[in-house]
Structure formats: structure tokens, C-alpha cells
Amino acid sequence: MQPMHEAKQIAQGVWWVGALDPDLRIFDVVMQTQHGTSYNAYLVRGKKTALIDMVKDGFSAQALQRVACVIDPSLIDYIVVNHAEPDHTGALRDFIGACPNAEILASRAGVGNLQNLFNQDGLRVRAVKPGENVDLGGMSLQFVEAPFLHWPDSMMTFCPEAGALFSCDVFGFHQPVPELFADESASELEAAKKYYFDVIFAPFKKYVLSAVQRVRALPVVSICPSHGPVYRRDPMAVVDQYERWAREDECARAKKLVYIGYVSAYGYTRALATALAEGVRSAGADVDLADIAAQPDICAVQAMGADALLVGSPTLNRDVLPPVWTFLAHLSGITQREKRAGAFGSYGWSGEAVPMVEQRLASLGYKLQPMDVRCKLRPSAQDLENARQAGRVFAEAL
Ligand code: FEO
Description:
Helix content is 32%, strand content 24%. The protein contains twelve helices and 24 strands. It has helices spanning 60-70, 86-89, 92-98, 108-118, 189-201, 205-216, 236-247, 268-282, 296-303, 322-329, 353-363, 381-396, and strands at residues 8-11, 14-16, 19-21, 26-27, 31-32, 37-39, 42-45, 49-52, 78-81, 103-106, 125-127, 133-135, 140-145, 155-159, 164-168, 222-225, 257-262, 286-291, 308-312, 315-316, 319-320, 340-347, 367-368, 373-376. The strands form six sheets. A seven-stranded mixed beta sheet has the order 1-2-7-8-9-10-11. Strands 17, 18, 19, 22, 23 and 24 form a six-stranded parallel beta sheet that branches. A hairpin with a 3-residue loop joins strand 4 and strand 5. The protein starts with 7 loop residues before the first strand and ends with a helix. 47% of the residues are buried. Bound molecules: MU-OXO-diiron. MU-OXO-diiron (FEO) binds next to helix 2.
């Protein structure tokens, strides 16, 4: 017999009707989700009823069963799509089938995305504007601008009568929380929240700060994100936390910071990295020197917080080492433009890795500084001295 999936009441007229996905281990190809995730959806009921967000393809039965605990889905008047990424809209066709009377509301960019997701005629969708109000009769919804958090289409929805902010991906994280409320969940979830911020929102810090100001202007009683728990006790704490993380780069750094990330099979590329670091420090800049082999994705997030970047890779079979490709793949082509960068490495035969890394950095928009810090096998004393000089010249140009 199928387990019963019950709706959970959050406030008078507001229910959680989402889906839990505890078995997910990788989200969107790039994020580790050690404990799985949840796709949160919410019902708001006045005289009319709105469903806020949907769920990923394959999870509609679970969510619609929860909806049916509160209302016959065919009686739903609106489906609000805060953001059209398929973890929230993959089950769109199932929901349209179950809620044939619902008008879909989304931002202007969201309408375009929904049409591309639906890919057939007959989608009842309307673009709503920031500040627009939808009266549900005794309850209402207001739409709050939140572009690039983390897609151009993203918005938030606020229900003033319940003080509930449906914040979409912002303020959430990947954790299926059966208890639903953050104040009933384990405190070690803090690390998962920061990881989620770093991977998803760190490239969009200025948009996070704009959203924080908009949220502060609202009489928020609870924050209901689209992943993870609902914040009902001290909901503004997570807003403060986001503001702090988004402002980290603004804290005045006494010195420029150069991130030097490398992998090294036999210690030769590491020796070049160390010599480069000495040169950078001799020019008065700080260095974050890291072997990126174990956690290249996390290291990339740290690298993006620095003022400049040096990347070291040996060459294996005429190619860059896989962790370095992973590291490079996690650098943002949006936020890192115009930062200075360079590449270096030891090699055994032909040494293609350095030009390949340089090419990738340039394609991301970095201001590439040719370094000529390459050597065959173990770096000589002269190679190391050249690397120190190159590090100093690199840092002096910052
Ligand atoms: Fe949870 Fe951007 O989707």
C-alpha cells in the first residue's frame, strides 16, 4: 500500500504540499546533496486557492496527494511559478491535468520559460508584475522582484495576511526535512545551508543584497523556501545570514588575495605553486594556496572570492587533469570577468595542460597573464626562481 503523504499546516490558510526526495545525491549535476532534498510547494486558501510552486518530474503523485488533503486539485484557481527551473516545474503537465481550472502566474521571463517547458498550445499563463496583488478573498498574494536569484525569471511571493514569504530558492538549502520547520531540525544543517549559498548564490551577491532589502520591508512572519525547512521562529535570522555572506567580499581586505589552486602527482607542480606563492607574497599580496584534487568544486567557490587566480596542472596524456577541469567548470563566467589569472604546471612529455587552462580562463572572461611557468618534470633551481619572479610580477600588476 502506498504511504499516505499528508499536507502540513504552516499558518491559518497556508499548507506545505511539496515532495521529499531523500535519495538524491547530486543536484543539477553540480551539487552534492548528501541527504537528498525537498521540492516545496504551498497552498494558500482564501475564498480562492493558489498553489505556490510545483515539484520535479516524478514527484507529482506525492505532492498532489498532499494537495488533495486540503482541497480537490481541480478547484485550485492559481498556480504561482516563482521560478521555472524543472526541479519546480518538471511536473507541470501533471499539475495542469490535475488543476484544469488554474491560471498560471509567473514573471515575464518565467512565462517564456514555461512556454518552452510546456512546448504545446493551450498553456493558461499570465505574466505578473512586481508589486501586483492577487486577491484570493480573505487572503492575498503580492509578487516581489528577485531577478537572478538565481535565474532571470526568479521572483518571490508574499501573503500579507499570513506574513508568509514564499522565497523560492533563496534562503533554502538541499535537505528533505520531514519535521518541516527549521526550529525542529538539527543545527548541523548550517553547513548545508552555507554550501547551498556558495554554489548557487555566491555568483549573484548584488542581487542577494537587493532582495534582502525588499524582504526587510515586508512584515514577514515565516519564510517558506522551495527547498529545505520553513523558518517560523526568528525568520529574519536567515535573511541576516544571507546579507552577511553576500557582503563578505566587501569587507576591506588589507591586501590583495591571490588564490593558487593546483594538483600535483609527484610534487613538481606543487613546487612551482609554492615558488609562485613566495613571489606573490614578496610583492605584498596574500596567498591562498590549495591542492584542489579532493574538492575541486568547493575550491572553485573559494577561488572566486579572491582578487586573482593562478591554476596549476600537470599534463596527462596531452590533457589537463580531471580535478582541474572540474575546478575550471565551477568558476563563474558571470562574476569573474576581468580578474587577472594565469596557469602553470610541470609535465612529462609535451605540456599541453597550461595552454588549455589558459584558454579556459580566457573563455570565462579572466584577464589572462601569460606566465611561462612550465617545466619538464622536476623544476630546477632556475625554474623555481623564474616562478618566484613570475609570482611577484603577477601580484605587482594587481
Ligand atoms: Fe530549485 Fe533553481 O531551482
